Amino acid sequence: MESKMYHFPVQIYYEDTDHSGVVYHANYLKYFERAREEVIGSEKLAAMWNDQKLGFAVYKLDIQYNEGAEFGDVLDIRTSFKKEGDYRVVWRQEAWRKDGKKAAVAANIHLVCVSSEKKLLKIPNLDLFT
Fold it and tell me: In which domain, by residue range, is 106 found?
């Protein structure tokens, strides 16, 4: 079962862009990471790491760049997820420009849970993933 859709606004600053004024491609991964952190919650993630010594790691990433966002844009990062088995959560994330006809950038990001010793663990019971 897929989650509800979450929205996270991202202001594009000059420092986010390359020499042509378009967002540098790797920055979308930062925006997606921030949006996932907002969905799960910084406090939950910190408690997972500090108390249980576990965290999430990207296992696989499929990304498609359709059009570049530009300096001054405010993107709507749209996020949903689906737990696929005990060990993996697949996040669908899209960056939308205002009045966009399709996502400027879209990605499927597969996350797994790992211990501080980098061992694969079952996804913990966070209210989100039940």
Answer: 6-129
